[in-house]
Design brief:
The chain is of the alpha/beta class. The chain folds into 5 domains: about 1-90; about 95-125 and about 260-435, Rossmann fold (3-Layer(aba) Sandwich), CATH 3.40.50.10680; about 130-215, no CATH class; about 225-255, no CATH class; about 465-500. Helices cover about 55% and strands about 10% of the residues. The strands form 3 sheets. A 7-stranded parallel β-sheet has the order 3-2-1-7-8-9-10. Strand 4 (about 225-230) and strand 5 (about 235) form a beta hairpin. Helix 5 (about 105-115) packs parallel to helix 7 (about 150-160). The longest helix is centred in the last third of the chain and has 38 residues, at about 425-460. It starts with a helix and ends with a helix.
Length: about 500
């Protein structure tokens, strides 16, 4: 009985449909009673009976349909009421969510993964391994440790407990191997056990209980080279930005050496089966484009039936994308990977705190401008959203906002395909509603906190200042304008004296 009353709570949103069913049943019964009571039936009486039958029947059917739909929503949300004995974990295992592939590297990629894991368990992070050729310390050479920084960061981003996983993976031992982190030792040990680096990363997905999986884009030693507009060739990734500054030129193209890097096992299948392929954000010429240059990766993306989404960078990168706008980023990807590689572009149109911007400007970085007309000419649909947030002293992508934009695109696609009653659509839609509610309540709390602080300040002021606050403000303003006028008058007098002389 308790479970029944829980089922009738306001949060379940079921009572309205029960009321509609009762109303429908009442109208049908009213129609029957009219037939039994009336001795003669005229046109007016017949019309009343037919109308009550039709409306009553429609109300009853609509009520049943929407109750079933709401029950399914509650089932997917993992509501532990009398409606279901399934718990949330079982439900999430049964419905994994849309299959999303994210391609790139660096902090941008990890922010996307952190947001998406709240909506789906079906995530594949395809990470560029581009740190080959760097000078390695003796202990790394001794253990034959492969570059794995981007893979490690993606594992952290997809972990159930990101904070603890970050501490474990970045932990360093004392003694001979003090420069080596636990993640490097772990991946090296796993490679020896599995006999293959790709298998070792794939097996780690289950061992570390991650949401989704991480795959390296290639197992070959991937060396990123750049050809500048003045014809200079830079064959070291870390020297690209420095050389661009010295030569006062721009990057014409980037390429891989060797050019025929083989794609890692599982990467192409993941792209083929994806409902959505997310490219970026990240370093355009050293993370995003190099991943697409690996053999058959760009071709498979172009041929894929999934949504192709590019998440644009918020800030330009000194020595790589100076003075680039959103369209320039898109054009660079198309020039390297071919047309049809991007369907949608999500770009930032939010406000950034000036103090943070100044720090970036001092280092030669600026905001990526959004020229909607230029983006339209690329054949890509532009989606504007407030993506920027601040973490410590850095401007970063808001992981929740990016994920929300991607999931809304997938929901729109399901709607277009007439899958309103699909379990996946209902699950994503309910999660989006919950995310929007949380965002609203968070904003309301922030507004309340600010208003409380303002009220406290007002209380601290004297009765006189509270009473004549507006008058005091106007006096201050008029006093400031009087001072400015005096300055202008003095300047004018000084100019007249000069003219007389």
């Amino acid at each position: 009985m308790k479970n029944f009353f829980k089922w009738l709570k306001n949060t379940t949103k079921v009572k309205r449909w029960i009321f509609l069913m009762i109303l429908g049943a009442f109208l049908v019964c009213f129609g029957f009673s009219k037939i039994f009571v009336s001795n003669e039936l005229g046109l007016k009486e017949l019309a009343e009976i037919i109308l009550s039958f039709v409306i009553g029947f429609v109300f009853f059917v609509v009520g049943i349909v929407f109750i079933q739909k709401r029950n399914l929503e509650l089932l997917i949300e993992g509501n532990k009421s009398g409606l279901t004995k399934f718990d949330k974990n079982n439900m999430e295992n049964n419905i994994k969510g849309p299959n999303i592939v994210v391609i790139g590297g660096g902090n941008g990629l990890n922010n996307v993964l952190k947001g998406l894991k709240k909506y789906t368990n079906n995530i594949t992070a395809i990470v560029s391994v581009s740190d080959y050729g760097k000078k390695q310390i003796a202990s790394r050479k001794e253990l034959k440790i492969k570059p794995s920084e981007d893979i490690k960061n993606s594992i952290i981003a997809l972990a159930n407990d990101t904070t603890k996983m970050e501490k474990i993976m970045n932990f360093k031992f004392d003694g001979k191997f003090k420069e080596i982190s636990f993640s490097e030792l772990y991946l090296s040990a796993m490679e020896h056990i599995c006999g293959d680096f790709a298998k070792c990363v794939e097996q780690s997905n289950n061992i570390l209980c991650m949401t989704g999986k991480v795959l390296p884009v290639t197992l070959d030693e991937m060396k990123i080279c750049a050809e500048l507009q003045d014809g200079t060739i830079v064959d070291e990734k870390d020297k690209i930005a420095e050389t661009v500054f010295e030569k006062v030129t721009k990057i014409n193209r980037v390429y891989l050496n060797p050019s025929n890097c083989k794609v890692a096992p599982g990467v192409l299948n993941a792209i083929k089966e994806a409902d959505a392929i997310v490219i970026g954000p990240g370093s355009l010429y050293t993370n995003v484009i190099p991943s697409l240059l690996v053999k058959n990766v760009a071709k498979t993306i172009r041929e894929s039936k999934g949504l192709k989404i590019y998440v644009s960078n918020i800030m330009t990168e000194p020595g790589q994308t100076d003075d680039y706008d959103v369209a320039d980023h898109i054009n660079a990807i198309i020039e390297h990977s071919g047309n049809g590689i991007i369907d949608f572009c999500i770009a930032d149109n939010g406000e950034i705190i000036p103090e943070y911007l100044r720090k970036y400007n001092l280092n030669g970085s600026d905001t990526v401008e959004m020229n909607a007309g230029k983006v339209r000419n690329t054949g890509v649909y532009l989606l504007k959203a407030s993506l920027a947030t601040t973490q410590e002293t850095y401007i970063r992508h808001d992981s929740d906002e990016i994920a929300k934009q991607i999931i809304e695109l997938i929901c729109s696609d399901l709607k277009f395909k007439d899958k309103h009653n699909d379990e996946q659509y209902i699950m994503l839609n309910s999660k989006l509603k919950n995310a929007n509610k949380k965002k609203k309540t968070k904003k309301q709390k922030q507004v309340k906190v600010i208003s409380k602080k303002e009220n406290k300040r007002a209380k601290k002021l004297s009765k006189f200042s509270n009473k004549y606050k507006d008058r005091i403000q106007s006096i201050k303003e008029s006093d400031e304008t009087r001072k400015e006028n005096l300055k202008i008058q003095k300047k004018a007098e000084a100019l007249l004296k000069k003219e007389k002389k």
